[in-house]
Write a structure and sequence with these properties.
Distance between the termini: 117 Å
Shape: globular
Oligomer: single chain
Number of strands: 8
Number of helices: 8
Strand order of the largest sheet: 2-1-4-3
CATH architecture of the largest domain: Roll
CATH class of the largest domain: Alpha Beta
Largest sheet: 4 strands, antiparallel
Order of helices and strands: HEHHHEHEEEHHEHEE
CATH topology of the largest domain: Chitinase A, domain 3
Number of domains: 2
Strand content: 15-25%
Radius of gyration: 39 Å
Length: 273
């Protein structure tokens, strides 16, 4: 202790001062970040009102015991049919392709066309599906109706985009083919003979300079023969499925299909526009 006290005069004598604790300088205030301004939400452009002149529709039908024209194998009651229609609707809304679901439909005609009802102007809407007209025309393309009760089942309809193609064809029928008995030309041949004839017709069609319309007048066996086979501009869902697939696969006007078989017989198809 005494040694410490003796040292103090030496410190002052040398002009020294006790060490001072350095003062802390205040840190500059940090600037507050400017608040990020939220951009106003962009309003989605208003959708145009649904076309009221013409609509394409696809449909699934769930029938029940006692429904008009119901298949004898159907054993569900009406409440179960409605619940099933709701289930199918949910799958459609979630994005399942109607072609995948069409096999479960109970209406034979649209089932055979993979759910296709057809493309119709409002005044030409099919009477059988009259209760679907107003609900379908109220939809945007891609939207689906709630289940709607028809005499033959609970129906769920989807509005599809209109897609048309103009074709003509030559049809060779045979006994037992669909509508063969109502053909404007009497059909007596069997299926094998029809296959042989359509192959010969296709060969003629493919000859340079062949006139498709004249060959249709000569050979075709449906009511379009006198128009050179011209079926007009028809939307999806109107043809038998194999015909539709072959027709829409034709890339440009003037293209011709190979032999196409449907329930009606054998076709050669020409795209007109």
């Amino acid at each position: 202790m005494r040694s410490v006290l003796l040292a103090l005069p030496l410190v002052f004598a040398c002009g020294g001062e006790p060490a001072k604790t350095p003062e802390k300088k205040p840190e500059p205030a940090k600037a507050e970040p400017e608040p990020v301004k939220a951009e106003p939400a962009k309003a989605e452009p208003a959708k145009p009102p649904p076309d009221q002149k013409e609509a394409c529709a696809q449909v699934l039908v769930v029938s029940w015991v006692g429904a008009e024209g119901g298949d004898a194998s159907i054993n569900r009651d009406e409440a179960t049919a409605k619940a099933r229609a709701e289930e199918l609707r949910g799958k459609l809304v979630s994005g399942t392709d109607i072609k995948v679901l069409a096999g479960e439909s109970d209406e034979p005609k649209t089932k055979s066309k993979r759910g296709g009802l057809g493309t119709f102007e409002r005044e030409k809407w099919p009477e059988k599906y009259a209760p679907l007209a107003d609900p379908v025309f109220a939809l945007q393309v891609g939207e689906v109706t709630a289940p709607i009760k028809l005499p033959f089942g609970w129906a769920v309809a989807r509005r599809c985009a209109i897609d048309k193609i103009h074709t003509s064809h030559i049809l060779i029928r045979y006994k037992g083919a669909k509508n063969a008995e109502t053909s404007p030309k009497k059909v007596k041949r069997d299926k094998a003979a029809a296959q042989k004839l359509i192959a010969e017709v296709l060969a003629e069609v493919n000859k340079p300079g062949a006139d498709f319309a004249e060959l249709a007048k000569k050979y075709s066996e449906d009511s379009s023969f006198d128009r050179g086979g011209d079926l007009g501009s028809i939307g999806r869902g109107m043809f038998a499925a194999p015909y539709e697939d072959a027709a829409f696969a034709l890339a440009k006007p003037g293209d011709t299909s190979g032999v196409v078989e449907t329930d009606f017989g054998f076709h050669v198809i020409r795209r007109l526009d």
